[in-house]
Design brief:
This protein is an all-alpha fold. It is built from 15 helices and no strands.
């Protein structure tokens, strides 16, 4: 143990541990704690009760976290210690990075790291850390959330679109990367008409490669809907959809987009025909497409 508990030199002889469980009631179901767990958390309870903020208390939280990395109370107390004893935070960043490498979906360690960055003001390693984490799991919510917080808080946007380009070249179905692209543009340049046209062309290039990839379709249609624009306002995107349709491409995402275009053009007959095809092509949502088809009669 890094904290020295159970060591013969008696560093902890001045502390009276509070044994588990922390109350006098007999538990209904006894948790089979290991002896090490009992020792660490008994001393942990004692130093928290005594409000001890010291280097040995910090070492004890390290042991407690190794035994249970999801214990948010220990993480919180660890931060209190760090604020009190004012140790250099570089070693704490290394510690959290090692925990993240081992448990990348642990809520508490990501929150703790954010707090340490706020204490130090140094976010220089965060983009690299999240890139390494996302290389192992491209959909890790915690890594994406942390990255977006860092970008927003410390204005580190310079190469973010390039990073997204790299991700999408590797996996054009990476819906997290598509979502992040929207976030970056929404947070920086905003959505001028020129930007919308550029991003629709960007999405169209990926749609052409994989017409049944829902992610790129969602990105394109999401841009148009979010900006309260019309599909028919963008001739290149409109032409792509009609070209794919003419090639008999069996894509429900293409077909649903075409239906929206025909509705914009007030061509109810063409839209109804598309919905009829969608009931066959996307049978799992047949009731939804029937509902949309019936709505045409009320428009």
């Amino acid at each position: 143990l890094s904290s020295g508990i159970n060591a013969e030199y008696g560093e902890w002889s001045d502390v009276t541990p509070i044994p588990l469980p922390y109350n006098d009631r007999e538990p209904v179901v006894q948790i089979m704690y290991s002896e090490r767990f009992k020792d660490v958390y008994s001393y942990m309870a004692a130093i928290m009760q005594n409000k001890e903020y010291s280097e040995r208390a910090l070492a004890l939280t390290t042991d407690a976290i190794e035994l249970n990395t999801a214990n948010y109370t220990v993480w919180h107390y660890r931060r209190e210690i760090l604020r009190e004893i004012k140790l250099h935070l570089e070693s704490e960043m290394e510690f959290t990075a090692s925990v993240i490498a081992d448990q990348p979906k642990n809520y508490q360690v990501w929150h703790h790291r954010r707090c340490i960055i706020e204490m130090s003001g140094d976010a220089s390693k965060e983009l690299e850390l999240t890139e390494e984490t996302l290389t192992k799991d491209a959909k890790n919510y915690h890594a994406w959330d942390h990255r977006q917080w860092v970008l927003t808080q410390y204005k580190m946007w310079d190469r973010e679109l390039e990073y997204i380009d790299e991700l999408l070249r590797k996996d054009l179905r990476n819906n997290s990367a598509w979502n992040h692209r929207y976030f970056v543009i929404d947070s920086t340049t905003g959505w001028s008409r020129g930007t919308v046209e550029k991003e629709l062309d960007y999405a169209a290039a990926y749609i052409s490669k994989a017409p049944n990839n829902e992610s790129s379709w969602n990105y394109a249609t999401g841009i148009i809907k979010k900006q309260s624009m019309k599909y028919t306002d963008f001739s290149n995107f409109k032409e792509l959809c009609r070209s794919l349709h003419a090639s008999n491409m069996p894509s429900p995402f293409l077909m649903s987009t075409l239906a929206e275009m025909y509705i914009e053009e007030e061509n109810s007959t063409a839209a109804s025909n598309i919905f009829e095809k969608l009931k066959e092509l996307d049978s799992i949502r047949v009731n939804y497409w029937s509902y949309r088809q019936k709505q045409l009669a009320t428009c």
